[in-house]
Design goal:
58% of the residues lie in helices and 0% in strands. It is mostly helical. The chain folds into 2 domains: 78 residues, no CATH class; 44 residues, no CATH class. Helix 1 runs parallel beside helix 4, helix 2 packs across helix 3 and helix 5 crosses helix 6.
């Protein structure tokens, strides 16, 4: 697939279908509806089935231009960002009370966790592995292991 050039009219270099999906998702959120991106893809792309639509969503979400355009659209509609609706809801959650007017610690904790997740406070899980190829005899290896164990004691 050839890359679409960024222009003044198309600053994110999106295809017409990508642009339509983003507008549809932002409008759903604005209307208080669930922004199911797969449904938006099914609406504008000629996909064979739901799995094909999910593949398109995955491809688009891994595209930094698409993600940037989606975020820009949500900021433009005042859904996310400073003084946005999301900010207001998150701030309300930080002061949540239960039915009796007492501090609702569970709800507040969930909002703090969500804010930290959004801010990237939680480190991404990293898995490291080490593969080692050693050209040494079994006896020499056993001897070296014994030496290292003795040094630890």
């Amino acid at each position: 697939m050839t890359a679409i050039k960024k222009t003044k009219e198309n600053p994110h270099g999106l295809s017409v279908k990508q642009d339509l999906v983003i507008k549809d998702v932002a409008n759903k959120i604005r209307q208080g509806k669930n922004p199911k991106i797969v449904e938006s893809v099914e609406k504008f792309y000629d996909v064979k089935n739901r799995n094909s639509a999910k593949s398109v969503v995955s491809y688009n979400m891994n595209n930094s231009n698409f993600r940037g355009a989606l975020v820009a659209s949500l900021v433009e509609k005042n859904i996310i960002g400073a003084n946005s609706e999301t900010e207001g809801v998150l701030l309300e959650g930080l002061t949540a009370l239960d039915k009796e007017g007492r501090t609702n610690h569970d709800t507040r904790l969930k909002f703090v966790q969500e804010i930290n997740k959004i801010a990237g406070v939680y480190a991404a899980e990293r898995k490291e592995s080490l593969n080692l190829n050693v050209d040494i005899s079994e006896e020499d290896l056993d001897r070296k292991i014994k030496e290292l164990q003795d040094q630890l004691l």
